[in-house]
Amino acid sequence: MNTDTQDQNALIMVVDDNPEFLSGIELTLEMEGFKVWTSDNGKNAMDQLEKAFLLKQRTGGSGLEGLPDLILADIMMPEM
Fold it and tell me: Which residues pair with residue 70 across a beta bridge?
């Protein structure tokens, strides 16, 4: 899957309530060189994003650095 144009510093957030799927996709993405955040429900994912955004504001960061470049989310799960 690795290509010359793939951004190896990309951060991908995966949100799913199926623990087997979550760990499988996390392992696959990490093996391809991506940084991965995982969350088991929508509320926890939003909390993670809010904390990252607030930390970015407190440290004076600009742009989207430190936030996920891509979010893969199941749309049918608890606390969505």
Answer: 12
Strands of 1-80, DSSP E = 11-15, 35-39, 70-73
Which pTM does this prediction carry? 0.82
Report percent pLDDT > 70 for the chain: 86
Cα dihedral 56, 59, 65, 66 sign: negative
Domain ranges of the chain: 11-73
Cα distances (Å, whole numbers) of residue 56 to 10, 22, 42, 76: 17, 26, 21, 30
CA-to-CA distance for 55 and 40, rounded, in angstroms? 22
How many residues belong to the chain? 80
